[in-house]
Design brief:
The protein has 457 residues and is an alpha+beta fold. The chain contains 14 helices and twelve strands. It has three domains: 121 residues, Trigger factor ribosome-binding domain (Alpha-Beta Plaits, 2-Layer Sandwich); 89 residues, Chitinase A, domain 3, CATH 3.10.50; 156 residues, Trigger factor, domain 2, CATH 1.10.3120. Helix content is 47%, strand content 18%.
Length: 457
């Protein structure tokens, strides 16, 4: 039985353990590992695994043999030390992560009396979770939702969209109005930029859909069939900047809606009645959607407030800086590739990336790096807090069945779970995603139970 010589916590994130196995135990296990390895060696003139030992040994790289023996031995011996390691962790009041202990080649060696080795166990950081009970988060109000339509505005928008989608449009020789549906040819290009021309033939546009750049619809009002309209507009780009665009629109056909109101539509459209028996049913449907969306947004705002408090108000603790650096470089490389492809600067690509702080208009590549590192550091801190909560506070741990069920759901409908790069979603990756989401959800549930509601003035 191997024994622990000493243990100590290094840099607050790893437990270093020096251990020793006596010579008899080690040599016995070493011989068995070597024997198994020799059975895989092929020597000309002998069946696989049947060659004399001295000939088989000559075919094996001695360094590879030693590494295999070390790795297999440590895996076995460390497993036997598991009760003692747990006792050390309990005494230190620390939690090990699920990662496998890593060996240190510098301290791993055969000695006259046996086999000495050192392993490192990754630890979760020490986080003072009791401070969470001091958080006081104000319940967000519907009026605080930025850009949220009022219920009346939401009803108006959805009813107009429903009327447009099921209306019957009839050809007319009248001039275009805001209610017209047009068959058009469109040429558009960036002003002053060669090779930017894009053409659309016989496209259908409904002017009342409100999906066009500001000023676009106004340019097409009062035109006749076969008329051509040329104009320029300043439009918003994905990077949040203005860009001048040149348009040439040819009117091929003009149509007008047959039904002016939803009442007319429900009186005459079988398709409308198939979806909702009455106009009142449609109102109930819209009310449920609006209420559900509002609740989800308010829940999300509260979660964001709690996350902000977790990251900013809990004291900092050691984070794996090498992993943070690797993730920062990965994101910067992705942004740089996009910049090259789109012929934009790194700052422009970052501004349209949707990443935190992207709206701050970074003035240099170094500032982009600073923003990305800040975001990644906060994310690592949040993840570690949630892992500590899960491992030390959450009583209802996830089961393998929980993970497998969610993993199957993710594979079935990646879009529903907003999975990036869904085309390359593997079974193992879906399980990793499922585990991570279940851990976050259960940890966050515990956190919300600790947070107090801020008193309303």
């Amino acid at each position: 039985m191997p024994k622990i010589l000493k243990s100590q916590i290094e840099k607050d994130l790893t437990l270093a353990i020096d251990a020793f196995a006596d010579v008899a135990e080690y040599e016995d296990y070493k011989d068995r590992i070597t024997s198994q390895l020799l059975k895989t060696v092929e020597v000309q003139g002998f069946r696989k695994g049947k060659a004399p030992t001295h000939l088989a040994v000559e075919k094996i790289d001695p360094i590879k043999l030693q590494q295999t023996v070390y790795q297999e031995s440590i895996a076995r011996f460390f497993n036997e030390l598991d009760p003692e390691v747990k006792e050390i962790l309990s005494k230190e009041k620390r939690v090990a992560t699920n990662s496998v202990a890593t060996l240190d080649p510098e301290f791993t060696k055969e000695e006259e009396g046996g086999f000495k080795f050192r392993v490192y166990v990754n630890l979760l950081p020490e986080v003072d979770l009791e401070l969470i009970s001091n958080f006081k988060i104000a319940e967000p109000k519907e009026s605080e939702i930025k850009g949220r339509l009022t219920k009346e505005e939401f009803f108006t928008r959805e009813k107009e969209a429903f009327l447009r989608s099921l209306n019957v449009y009839e050809d007319t020789e009248e001039k275009t109005t805001e209610e017209s549906q047009l068959m058009v040819d469109i040429q558009e290009s960036v002003a002053g930029q060669e090779n930017s021309l894009r053409e659309t033939k016989d496209g259908t546009i409904t002017l009342s859909s409100k999906q066009f750049p500001k000023g676009f619809v106004e340019q097409l009002i009062g035109l006749k069939t076969a008329e051509v309209k040329k104009f320029s507009l300043s439009v918003d780009t994905e990077a949040g900047k203005k860009q001048k665009m040149d348009f040439e629109v040819t009117i091929n056909k003009i149509r007008l809606p047959k039904y002016k109101t939803l009442i007319e539509l429900f009186e005459n459209s079988d398709e409308a009645k198939k979806q909702f028996k009455t106009l009142a049913d449609f109102d109930i449907f819209l009310t449920n959607i609006y209420t559900t969306e509002t609740t989800q947004i308010l829940d999300s705002l509260k979660r964001q407030s709690v996350i902000k408090a977790l990251v900013e108000d809990l004291p900092n603790f050691p984070l794996p800086q090498d992993q943070i650096a690797d993730e920062v470089e990965r994101i910067l490389n992705v942004l740089q590739e996009r910049a090259i492809t789109s012929k934009q600067s790194l700052m422009q690509v970052f501004a349209s990336s949707g990443l935190p702080d992207a709206d701050k208009n970074a003035s240099s590549e170094e500032e982009v790096r600073k923003f990305v590192k800040g975001y990644i550091t906060k994310e690592f801190k949040l993840v570690d807090i949630l892992r500590v909560v899960y491992n030390t506070k959450v009583e209802e741990k996830m089961t393998d069945k929980d993970v497998e069920f969610l993993a199957k759901e993710i594979i079935k409908d990646p879009t529903k779970y907003e999975i990036a790069d869904a085309a390359n979603l593997t079974e193992d990756r879906s399980k990793d995603i499922a585990y991570d989401r279940l851990l976050r959800a259960r940890s966050f549930k515990w956190i919300l139970e600790q947070v107090k509601e801020k008193e309303k003035k």
